[in-house]
Amino acid sequence: MQRKHMARKTMKAAFFESFGEADVIKVGELPIPELKEGEVLVKIKAAGVNPVDAAVRKGMLKDFLPTSFPAIPGWDVAGIVEDRGFAARRFTVGDEVYAYARRPLVQWGTYAEYLVIPEAYLAHRPKNISWEQTAGVPLVGLTSYQSLYVAGGLREGQTVLILGASGGIGTLSIQLAKSKGATVVGVASAKNHAYMREIGADFTVDYHNQHVGEEVKKIFPDGVDLIFDAASGKTLEQSLVALKKDGTVVSILNRGNDIDKSIRFHYVFVEPNSMQLDDLRKLAEDGKIDVHISKAYALDNAAEAMRQIETHHTSGKIVIVP
């Protein structure tokens, strides 16, 4: 029996053949990888764009994540199962799925028309949100989940301080913390405070022209249980005075080398996890997660999308729609 995707051997994709700035991104035809045992072919409906995509393209993670050229960027995907390899039976053709598609080798990413991936990475997508919103969930959702729930052990009744609370990870973190029954303090520019409150932040603090930690201590004199750092630098440094003695710091940017060793600290680099994606699907379908899409780019404009994410001034998520 001839496989459906054999009728088409190539796909349109954005890719880079050497590390560099956004202008190394090309858009053209690349082969669709052969479907192997346990793998599925996904027709991509939308791909999330994240700051880490730019870091990978620049070669900043090459010692940690080997790259094979030409490399397609992107780890967030939402799409439809179009074909299945031998023994890949968790999903049927036509199923709507999503994934955090980071593989051990950077090569076949999500800025493309198709993705071949082991079915273990996939989960059914939330049915009550758009394709674009779905593609905006995996990386930020799993990062927030693994940082708050797993590393941070966040429980109902605790207080969490979220640094960088208006970005993609920050906004998901506010919502996940609230769904757990925690009190949330969000740190970001004043212009984003109304939006942060809208999605659940109980308190907001501006990091401009004031000491973040001291401002938080005015709200919680005894300090907070958990600091989730998605901003780092001076903001993290200042916030540590607002941590309870037995509190925890979780960072996705700082590896903890300059953090006082007496502080309980965890560094998180998000990992694929389809069971956690299923939990996130349920939260989305229960109305606990809303993803704000600020802009959708065509695949031809992938370089422009990457330039935008590199400004670090994106509110909500941006996506690529092939």
Observed structural traits:
single chain; 322 residues; alpha/beta; Rossmann fold; seven-stranded mixed β-sheet; six-stranded parallel β-sheet; 9 helices; globular; disordered N terminus
Walkthrough of the structure:
The chain folds into 2 domains: 4-137 and 291-307 and 316-321, Alpha-Beta Complex (Quinone Oxidoreductase, Chain A, domain 1), CATH 3.90.180.10; 139-267, NAD(P)-binding Rossmann-like Domain (Rossmann fold, 3-Layer(aba) Sandwich). The strands form 3 sheets. Strands 3, 4, 5, 6, 7, 14 and 15 form a 7-stranded mixed sheet that branches. It has a 6-stranded parallel sheet with strand order 10-9-8-11-12-13, sandwiched between helices. Strands 1-2 form a two-stranded antiparallel sheet. The chain has 322 residues and is α/β, with parallel strands linked by helices. Strand 14 (293-298), helix 9 (302-310) and strand 15 form a beta-alpha-beta unit. It is globular, with a radius of gyration of 20 Å. The protein is built from 9 helices and 15 strands. The protein has helices spanning 51-58, 131-135, 138-151, 168-179, 193-198, 212-219, 233-239, 274-285, 302-310; strands at 10-15, 26-31, 39-49, 76-84, 96-100, 114-118, 122-124, 159-163, 183-187, 203-205, 224-229, 243-251, 264-267, 293-298, 317-321. The longest helix is centred in the middle third of the chain and has 14 residues, at 138-151. Mean pLDDT is 94; it is low at 1-6.
